[in-house]
Specification:
Number of strands: 8
Low-confidence stretches: none
Shape: globular
Distance between the termini: 18 Å
CATH architecture: Roll
Order of helices and strands: EEHEEEHEEEHHH
Helix content: 25-40%
Structural class: alpha+beta
Number of domains: 1
Strand order of the largest sheet: 5-4-3-6-7-1-2-8
CATH class: Alpha Beta
Mean pLDDT: 89
Radius of gyration: 17 Å
Amino acid sequence: MQIFDLTLLFTLRYIEPKVWRRATVSSDFILSDLHHVIQQLFDWDNAHLWQFEIGNDLYLPGDDEFDDITPPGKTQGDADETILSEALGRSKKFRYTYDFGDDWQIDIMVERRVEATKVNIPVCLDGARAGPPDDIGGPPGYAHFCEAMADPKHHDHADMVDWIDGDWDAEAFDIKAINRRLKRAFAGLK
């Protein structure tokens, strides 16, 4: 199997202005590796269930059995054993869902495929805006959170500052911090 570097565009659905990331990953990553990349890109805690939807296939972590909620016409695969390039096939678009309560949905698009480099640590190339905090209540909760954090006179401002434990800027995007997290998380890869 030939290995490629894939440049992927990750865009959070239902959020305006857009929260997005562009990153390069290896085509030989297993899907659970890609899940960990996404967690670092959006600075999430990896504390919730997740899945990938590629065509008619749903991929979940191997120890999570959701046969009773797999929609008709879909098949379920093991994200801990499935290689990204094999799951993609010819697909250029797929979806990742994180935290089935908050229901964060990320549209992922393959923008570029090039011959692999010698280092296969994922790298964030670009992006915009801060990733929403875990457990904020999905897109509606995030909109309320941003509104409250931006206005010191908002009736929920003090509670939100307390909850997030300090200041928070929706427009902040720190590519260096993201790449440090990725490097730490994938330090064992060569």
